[in-house]
């Protein structure tokens, strides 16, 4: 089974499905590398108006695969995962098409970081999101803190990050993390058709709203997040917390 799939819904709309439902769509190296390749392809598609990202099954994404990434012990080893995955996030941010994540269940840890990287997030009643990295004695390392601050502002972002709490669909809507509560994929599909017919117009607005100078600043902030996360990653507290998760669950 492919860890992630991409399908064109029409000439202007593409959907990426994170496809590891037995692991609640946790990101592993295979998913990361395939996402990277898909986004390179999409970057060249000048007809693309909307990229929709969702998870298979009953979750959006449970973050990094704690079993696979537990083998990364030192800060330098952690960066071999943090840098390419933040690269994926940077590619989502840089896309000239409108990007939307659809939460049909939990988006936690790195899953919440992926959701924060899209222009919009829609969720159904089962949507939940939490930056639970703090419970594992690390911080966001894919750029999520900087992206969250852009979306919901400094105070709400600090609270969400530093309490590591999981928020309900309605709480996320109230905060502006989720932009719209929908019933199902049909509603998301409908949402994807609301943009003007000319891809050039949509794509030009994306460039206007995230000019190169701002994008560079944002990427610099993301790079700083990687460094801080990597330092914490090699600490004993992080390794112990991950061991606890892995032992409890199996
Ligand atoms: C590296 C970047 C930074 C990060 O992402 S740090 C955060 C890492 N993620 C986490 O700590 C989230 C851990 N998962 C959870 O909290 C829950 O599984 C979650 C997503 C709320 C879903 O809860 P439930 O619906 O009750 O499902 P469950 O817990 O029974 O999980 C089903 C099976 O999936 C597995 N799973 C879930 N999240 C995983 C993960 N991140 N890495 C590896 N395996 C993961 C889980 O162990 C369980 O496996 P099994 O069926 O017991 O063998």
List the SSEs and their pairings:
Blueprint: E1 4-10, E2 13-18, H1 29-43, E3 50-55, H2 66-69, H3 75-94, E4 98-103, E5 106-108, H4 110-117, E6 120-123, E7 128-130, H5 144-152, H6 154-163, E8 166-168, H7 169-175, E9 180-181, H8 185-192, H9 199-209, H10 212-233, H11 236-249
Parallel strand pairs: 2-3, 3-4, 4-6, 5-7, 6-9
Antiparallel strand pairs: 1-2, 7-8
Helix pairs in contact: 1-3, 3-10, 4-5, 5-6, 5-10
Bound molecules: Butyryl Coenzyme A.
Q: How far do the termini sit from each other?
A: 22 Å
Low-confidence stretches: none
Q: CATH superfamily name? A: 2-enoyl-CoA Hydratase, Chain A, domain 1
Helicity range of the residues? 40-55%
Average pLDDT: 97
- Which strand order does the major sheet show? 1-2-3-4-6-9
């Amino acid at each position: 089974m492919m860890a992630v799939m991409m399908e064109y819904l029409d000439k202007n709309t593409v959907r990426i499905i994170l496809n590891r439902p037995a692991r609640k769509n946790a990101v592993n190296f295979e998913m990361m590398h395939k996402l990277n390749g898909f986004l390179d392809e999409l970057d060249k598609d000048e007809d693309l108006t909307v990229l929709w990202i969702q998870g298979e099954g009953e979750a959006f994404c449970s973050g990094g695969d704690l079993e696979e990434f537990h083998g990364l012990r030192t800060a330098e080893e952690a960066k071999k995962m943090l840098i390419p995955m933040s690269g994926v996030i940077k590619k989502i941010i840089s896309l000239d098409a409108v990007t939307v994540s659809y939460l049909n269940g939990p988006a936690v840890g790195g899953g919440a970081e992926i959701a924060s990287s899209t222009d919009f997030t829609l969720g159904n009643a089962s949507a939940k999101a939490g930056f639970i990295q703090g419970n594992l004695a690390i911080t966001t390392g894919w750029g999520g803190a900087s992206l969250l601050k852009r979306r919901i502002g400094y105070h709400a972002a600090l609270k969400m990050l530093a309490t590591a709490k999981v928020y309900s669909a309605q709480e996320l809507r109230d905060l502006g993390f989720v932009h719209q509560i929908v019933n199902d994929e049909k509603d998301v599909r409908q949402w994807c058709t609301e943009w003007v017919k000319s891809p050039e117009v949509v794509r030009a607005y994306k460039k206007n709203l995230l000019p190169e100078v701002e994008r560079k600043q944002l990427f610099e902030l993301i790079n700083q997040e990687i460094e801080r996360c990597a330092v914490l990653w090699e600490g004993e507290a992080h390794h112990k917390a991950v061991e606890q998760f892995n032992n409890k669950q199996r």
